[in-house]
Design goal:
- Helix 6 crosses helix 8 and helix 7 runs parallel beside helix 9.
- The termini are far apart.
- The longest helix is centred in the C-terminal third of the chain and has 42 residues.
- This protein has a domain of 210 residues.
- The protein is 52% helix and 20% strand.
- The protein is an alpha+beta fold.
Length: 452
């Protein structure tokens, strides 16, 4: 004869069910706090955004905390703080990166590991995100004039990208921004042969072709690469005639906000109980700004070219992981279903049918609450990286950068020395444009922006 389940135990089971509901609610509220900080970032409230991203309740991942704060500081031109935060993100995934740098097999072991719930493990970034951390770090080194640092970070980014491609046996349309940063830093050091290699890699990947093609023709002409020059001229056109002792202006811009993840869940009620599995997918955000335009001395604008689409790379990188994610989720769901039925049967035998049904319900709730897709991601990454380069005569020039579909920002009048390179770093967020220049001598400061 079975015993009825005692009232205190029924209350405990009910409390457990309520606790599981609270667990799901807490996951939603954590996402809401994270998204609130993203909203503050997009609106240009950088102090509030940083505080939100540093909140442990909003960002439980050291990798994401460093990456998000680093991007906030990049947008406002605080290079030292940006570098410190991004270094923290890299430190958080150092062990995984070292395994990845050894080879794809070592990375595959880490990515393929089984966990009870995707969201309870420490988030260490998608492969493309770990690559982008090093590109962002390269920007901080470029802004601070440390060209060796640019080299180190872009080479590490490229190596990590090659590991991802080797793991999935794919070629991503990625790496263009890292190659460009590397090429620019080489040119600043007069190492044109090495810059040529990076521009050639961009051309091979068909990334930023307009920018890379002109650079290849220019450098091949300078270095007298007579065997390659005819082919390059046929493809990209004749070399441009540059002013005497020309200075140059390089624009590097991040446009908009990159994609975010949502959860795709399939729940099936089988004769044995609830079977559920969940996987994430990326959703691109609408972008107000399509490109940037550099205007020098009120002349014809020079439009930037896209050198890398974070949206496309993120979607493809996740797509290549989808088989592993679905298989892991399905296996976990099956294990939970088996465990739920075993526990429910044991409780039924000891305490009766009602107790068995209650235990089965709790187990099903546990499956529904814990078998969730991991929708964490680096929210403040741009959707696209853009770049442009203009050659001008040395001397004084008035500069303006316009966001097509958004703001226009004056940089004032700057004096450029012969052969000098001025770097303009920009970030569009909604219609707003945040711009910082590195190099040149300010002759007349830009007018202060109007306050709303």
């Amino acid at each position: 004869m079975t015993r009825p389940i005692p009232a205190p135990r029924l209350r405990r089971l009910s409390a457990l069910a309520l606790g599981l509901a609270a667990l799901a609610a807490s996951c939603i509220s954590t996402t809401a706090r994270h998204l609130a900080a993203v909203g503050q970032f997009e609106s240009g409230c950088f102090d509030d955004a940083r505080a939100g991203f540093e909140d442990e309740r909003a960002i439980g991942s050291p990798f994401l905390r460093g990456a998000e704060v680093g991007m906030v500081e990049l947008a406002r031109g605080n290079w030292d703080e940006a570098q410190r935060a991004l270094d923290g993100a890299v430190d958080a995934v150092r062990e995984l990166e070292e395994r990845a740098l050894i080879g794809p097999a070592n990375l595959g072991e880490a990515v393929g590991s089984l966990v009870i719930n995707e969201g309870v493990k420490d988030y260490q970034g998608e492969g493309y995100e770990r690559v982008q951390v090093h590109n962002a770090l390269a920007l901080t080194y470029l802004a601070r004039g440390s060209l060796d640092g640019v080299y180190v970070e872009t080479r590490r980014a490229n190596k990590l990208l090659e590991t991802e491609e080797g793991l999935y046996q794919k070629k991503y349309a990625a790496g263009g921004f890292g190659h460009l940063l590397s090429a620019v830093s080489y040119e600043l050091q007069g190492r044109y042969d090495e810059a040529y290699i990076d521009y050639r890699r961009m051309a091979e990947k068909e990334l930023g072709l307009e920018l890379a093609g002109r650079a290849l023709v220019r450098i091949a002409t300078r270095l007298r690469y007579d065997d390659e020059l005819p082919r390059l001229v046929e493809r990209f056109g004749e070399p441009s005639k540059l002013p005497q002792d020309a200075a140059s202006i390089v624009v590097l811009g991040g446009l908009g906000l990159g994609p975010y993840k949502v959860e795709n869940t399939l729940a099936l009620m089988t004769p044995s109980g609830l079977a559920q599995f969940s996987v994430p997918r990326f959703v691109p955000r609408p972008q107000l700004v399509s490109t940037l335009e550099l205007v020098v001395d009120d002349g014809a604008p020079l439009r930037t070219s896209q050198v890398e689409s974070v949206n496309d790379v993120a979607a493809r990188n996740l797509e290549d992981r989808m088989g592993w994610l679905a298989a892991r989720s399905a296996l976990r769901g099956a294990m939970k279903l088996i465990a739920t039925n075993a526990v429910a049967e044991s409780v039924r035998r000891k305490h009766g049918d009602a107790a068995g049904v209650a235990a089965w319900l709790v187990g099903s709730l546990l499956t529904a609450a814990t078998e969730r897709a991991d929708t964490r991601c680096w929210f403040t990454l741009p959707a696209e990286w853009h770049a442009a380069r203009m050659w001008v005569a040395p001397g004084e020039h008035s500069l303006r950068l316009r966001a097509v579909g958004g703001d226009s920002v004056s940089l004032g009048t700057l004096r450029l020395a012969p052969g000098e390179t001025l770097v303009i770093l920009a970030r569009s967020l909604g219609p707003r444009l945040h711009v910082h220049s590195v190099g040149g001598e300010t002759v007349a400061a830009a007018p202060a922006p109007l306050q709303p």
